[in-house]
Amino acid sequence: MRLILAEDSTLLREGLVRLLAEEGHDVLAAVGDAEQLLAAVDTEPPDVVIADVRMPPTHTDEGLRAALAIRRSRPRVGVLVLSQYVENRYATELLTGDPEGVGYLLKDRVAQVDDFLDALERVGRGEAAFDPEVVRRLLARSTRTDPLSRLTARERDVLADMAQGHTNAAIAQRLNVSQSAVEKHINAIFDKLDLSGAGTSGYSRRVLAILRYLGS
């Protein structure tokens, strides 16, 4: 893939550039702030942008705002956002628009190279990839609200894996159940979230379920 990396930590930025190059990816630019990120994307649009949420000058949400701007102006560019902490608002805001080709990972996950590369590949394919810890925190926050409180424990497990961006086959493997069982759980989730008639495809209902889950 053709990538642009935005990370203000020189050590982490250079380490990621080396890792990505070793994996066969083409790093078009590696920059240290949001302004440089936007300029680099305008110069040569990549397949995926990897961006830290907090970057200079205020170290608040410059990276996230740049990522959202890129999603609005270039919806075909995937965005994988990195964050030091679980920040519910940022995760929800990133998914509020078109959730295809977006990801949100904690920086600790980057050290788990296989997980990081798997998330990057999924974003590059136009899928979603959300950190399991982010999803766990959001699930804990949302179980007090209807209609999510109507879900069984197993259905919440399935929805959590859906929110991370896993396919039905991957969910079946992770939960050690059959793929048909996963499909039954997903249909039950759609029913309980009143999404049985939403959209024209299973994928559109899947996206709505994840948005309902993350945004509640």
TrEMBL record:
Residue ranges of every copy of the Response regulatory domain listed in the record: 2-122
Residues carrying 4-aspartylphosphate: D52
Domain of life: Bacteria
PROSITE patterns: HTH_LUXR_2, RESPONSE_REGULATORY
Pfam families, per database record: GerE (PF00196), Response_reg (PF00072)
CDD domains: LuxR_C_like, REC_NarL-like
Domain HTH luxR-type: 144-216
PANTHER family: TRANSCRIPTIONAL REGULATORY PROTEIN NARL-RELATED (PTHR43214:SF24), TWO-COMPONENT RESPONSE REGULATOR (PTHR43214)
Name of the protein described by the UniProt record: Response regulator transcription factor
Lineage: Bacteria, Bacillati, Actinomycetota, Actinomycetes, Kitasatosporales
